[in-house]
Specification:
With 153 residues, this protein is α+β, with helices and mostly antiparallel strands. Helices cover 59% and strands 14% of the residues. The protein has helices at residues 7-55, 109-115, 118-126, 128-152, and strands spanning 74-78, 83-88, 93-98, 104-108. The protein has a 4-stranded antiparallel β-sheet. 16% of the residues are buried.
C-alpha cells in the first residue's frame, strides 16, 4: 500500500487556512481593544460616583463576589489563587490583592482586561449604580427586624 501526498495542494490548503487564522486572530485583537476602550470609558464616566462612595467611606461590593473594598470597585476574583482585583480609578490601575499574603500588585487596565473576565469587570464597575440602593435595602431589613423585636416585648 502506497500513500500519495501532493505537497503542493497541501500547502495551498494550508495557505487558505492560515489566511482565515490570521483574520480571526486580528478580529480577536480588535475585540479585545474594544473591550479595553469600553472599560476605560466606563471608568471615566463613573469616576465622580466612585469618588463620592470613597468620600462617604462606604465599601464597594460586586454582585457575585463576596468580598468588599474601601479602595475602589471590585472588578474580579480568582478563586483558584484567592486573588481579588480592585480598580484604582484615579490612576486607571487594577490592584491584584493576594488575599492569603495581602501582597498587592498593580496591573494596567489593558493587561487586566486581557487576563481576566471582561464581564466580571464591567459588572463590578457598573454595580456602583445599584450598590447604594442595596445598602439602603439592607438597612431597611435591619430596621424592620429591630422594630419587630421591640414590639415583641
Amino acid at each position: 500500500m502506497s500513500i500519495e501526498i501532493n505537497s503542493e495542494e497541501l500547502i495551498k490548503d494550508f495557505e487558505v487556512v492560515h489566511e482565515h487564522y490570521e483574520a480571526n486572530r486580528k478580529k480577536i485583537e480588535e475585540l479585545l481593544e474594544a473591550q479595553k476602550n469600553l472599560f476605560s470609558k466606563t471608568i471615566d464616566q463613573l469616576k465622580p460616583a466612585i469618588d463620592w462612595v470613597r468620600e462617604k467611606q462606604l465599601t464597594f461590593t460586586h454582585p457575585r463576589i463576596k468580598y468588599q473594598s474601601g479602595r475602589g470597585p471590585i472588578v474580579g476574583y480568582n478563586s483558584k489563587d484567592n486573588l481579588l482585583y480592585v480598580l484604582e480609578a484615579d490612576r486607571k490601575w487594577v490592584i491584584k490583592v493576594d488575599l492569603y499574603s495581602k501582597e498587592e500588585k498593580q496591573l494596567p487596565v489593558w493587561k487586566f482586561i486581557e487576563e481576566s473576565s471582561f464581564e466580571d469587570a464591567m459588572d463590578g464597575l457598573l454595580y456602583i449604580k445599584k450598590m447604594i440602593n442595596e445598602y439602603n435595602n439592607q438597612l431597611l431589613v435591619s430596621i424592620n427586624e429591630l422594630e419587630s423585636q421591640l414590639k415583641k416585648y
